[in-house]
Amino acid sequence: METYIIKVLNFLTKKGEVYKAEPPLDLKEAFSKFAGGENQMKKDQLLRFMVEHQGENNISTMEDLDKIVEKFLQLRNSCSSTKTSSTRIVDVYRKQGLSLNDFIDFLILDDFNGPLKDKVHHDMNAPLSHYFMYTGHNSYLTGNQLTSESSDEPIIEALKQGVRVIELDLWPSKSSNNDGIKVVHGRTFTTPVPVSKCLQSIKDYAFHKSDYPMATEIFGEMLYCPETDYLTEFPSPESLKKRIIISTKPPKEYQQSDSIRKPMPNGSEPSEEESWGPELPDSVAKLKTEDRNSSDEDQEDINTSDNKSNQQGVRQYKHLIAIHGGKSKGSMKNRLKDDVKVRRLSLSEKKLKSASESHGADLIRFTQRNILRVFPKGERVKSTNFRPYIGWLYGVQMVAFNMQGHGKSLRLMQGMFRANGGCGYVKKPEFLIRTLPHEEVFDPKKPPSRKQILKVKVYKGDGWRLDFSPTHFDRFSPPDFYTKVSIVGVPADCAKNKTRVKTDTWYPVWDEEFEFKLRVPELALLRIEVKDKDKGKDDFAGQTCLPLSELRHGFRSVPLYDRKGKKYKSVTLLMRFKLETLN
C-alpha cells in the first residue's frame, strides 16, 4: 500500500515531466575526439567520423554526407513540437556543424544508421541449393491448422515480408465459384478459397519485397520452365530474377472425385504432393494422398490411370516443374543418397531431428546439391513453429514456417532473413556447401575452437513515449526498462545476458557492455528484447533479431519490433557492435 501511494504521488508531481539522462561517456569521447575538443562537430570532421569510426564505405564525399544529415535534420524538425524553418536548420548545420545532442540524435534517429546493410550483397550466382530460402507452410491459412479460414491475405502478407516459397494445397472442387479448383488444408474443417484469387495475389505481390525467384504453384508468363526433363544442377537466384518456379512431385495418378475433408487424428497432416484429381480446366491441381499415416512428405505415386488425355496433361504439366520432389520411402540412408538428378526432399521436424542424430553428415552432403524441406509436425494445430536451427545447422534450405503464428521461433526466422537486404535468399556458409579435407563435413555438435568475440554495448533507448500510451506499462509511474541480449546458434555459442533495470524513466540509459565468445559466427543470431520490470510477469516492450555475420560495426540505431514482427514507428536502441577475430 505504501509503494502504491508513493507511485501515485510521483505521478502527480512528475506528470508531463520529460527527463533525459546524461549522454554515455563513449559517445561524448567519440564526439570530442573527432570534433577536436570543440562544442560543434564540423562537416569535414563528421565525414571523417563516418569513414574511420563507423566504416561507412558508401559515404565518400561531403555531398553524400550532406544529403543524409539534411534529411535527418528536416525529419527531426517535423517531429518536434517547436517548428523551425527547414532552410534555417540546414544553414546552421552547414555553418556550425552538429552539437553533441545533435550528434547523438543523428546516430539514433536516422534510418541510414541501422545495424544491417539494406542492399543485396551476397553472391547470387550459385545454384539454388547453396541458399537458405524464406519458406512458408500452408501459406493460405489465417489461423490454426484445423478450423481457420483459407484466404489470400496471409499470402499477401508473407510476400510483403519477403517470403519466397509459398505453399498452396490445390484440390478439385465441384463448386462453380472455385474455378473447379480450391485451395484448402485437406481433410480438416478449414474453409476453402478459390485458386484464382490466390494466384492473382501471388502475381500481384510476388516481387513486392524482392526480385529474386519464388517457388509456388502458379502458371503464367513469369513461370520458369526447364529446358530438359530433369536438372543436374539447380539454376541460380540471379538467373531466375522476376521468375516463378514450381516445386512438386511429378504427377502420375488421377483421382476421380473430390475427397471429403475430415479432421486427422492427433491433428496430424495428410501427405503432400502425391496424386492428381480429375482433369481440371487450364491447370492441374496438387492433391493430398489418402494415406493418413504420412505427413506432408513427398510420396512415390502409383500410376493407376490409362486415360490418354489425362496422361497428355500430366506430361505437359511435368514439363513445368523445375524442382522435382523426390521419394520419401525407404531408409533414411537411401532417401539421402545423391544422384545425377537434383531433387527436393520433404521431412517432418520429427524425422529431421531423428536423422540429424544418426545421419548428420548425410544430411549436409545431400543439401550441398539437392534441396531439403522441413515442415512443422502435425501436432502444431495452433500454427506454432519449431526452432529453425534444427534445419539450418544441417544445410536445410527450406525451413517451412507457419507465418500466421508468432513466437520466439518465428522471430529467429525473421532475423535470419533480414540478412542480404531482406531479399529472402541467404547464402549458406562455405562449410555447409563444400566438403572439407579428407571428405569430412561440418559437425554442429563438434564446432571449431573459439575464433571470434562479439562485443555488444547497450547505450540507451528512446521512442516508447511516442509509440505507447502514458499508462501502458504502469498507471502511476514511468516504466522500469531492462534489455536482454542473447546469442542463438550452435549449442556451444548460445549465451544470455541482460542489463540492469532503469527505474521510472521513458528514456533509459544503461551504458553496459557484454562479450560473447563465438565458434560459428556465420550461423549465429543476436536476439535483443526490452522488458518493463513488474511484480508479476514483466511487460514486453520490443524485440529484434539480427544475423551476427551482417552486423555493421560502430554506433548503430537498432529499431525494435512488436511480438509479431511489425516494426514500431519510433522505438529504437542506440548500441555499439564490435567483432574481434582471435589468433
From TrEMBL:
Enumerate the Gene3D superfamilies for this protein. C2 domain, EF-hand, Phosphatidylinositol (PI) phosphodiesterase
Which keywords annotate this record?
Cell membrane, Hydrolase, Lipid degradation, Lipid metabolism, Membrane, Transducer
Is Lipid metabolism given among the entry's keywords? yes
- Using the UniProt annotation, give all residue ranges assigned to the region (Disordered): 247-314
In Swiss-Prot or TrEMBL terms, this protein is called Phosphoinositide phospholipase C
Recorded GO cellular component terms are:
plasma membrane
Positions with biased composition (Basic and acidic residues)? 285-295
The taxonomy runs: Eukaryota, Viridiplantae, Streptophyta, Embryophyta, Tracheophyta
- Domain named PI-PLC Y-box: which ranges? 346-432
Where's it found, cell-wise? Cell membrane
The UniProt record lists the C2 domain at 435-562
